[in-house]
Specification:
Layout: H1 8-14, E1 32-42, H2 47-50, E2 56-57, E3 60-65, E4 74-75, E5 87-88, H3 90-99, E6 103-109, E7 113-114, E8 124-125, E9 129-138
Antiparallel strand pairs: 1-3, 1-9, 2-3, 4-5, 6-9, 7-8
Amino acid sequence: MANHRKTMQDSLNGQRTFLSGINNSGDEFPQIKSICFKYREYGDLPQYCYNRQGDCDRNGYEDIIDNKYLIGEYLDCKNERCNNGGYRIRFIIREMVRRKIEHQDGTIYCIGNEGSPGGRIKGHICSNYINYKIDISYS
């Protein structure tokens, strides 16, 4: 098994920063009755992904998060060479809740880079991205 590369969510979990103080338990969004975050990731995906059936094929990796308690600040990038990467999804949900938006779709690009395995040397910007659809119902 390959070494675990550091993602942006790992960085937040290991430091006391403004963003890491946010509770991932869903308590930040008491007004959300239900949420469905559906996304498809494109770009460099792990080889195991191509050997599976169902949620992953040569057209990308697809998944659904339908529980507000499982939404972190960042969604991890699946590019095995990406360091400090991820997709900033909680910011989008915060803005939707603030503006009482029930549906939104769009594209988010990974913020990581393809540097050395330990992350000491920065390389090219990660080329992975996700297309997403978010549906929220409010209480």
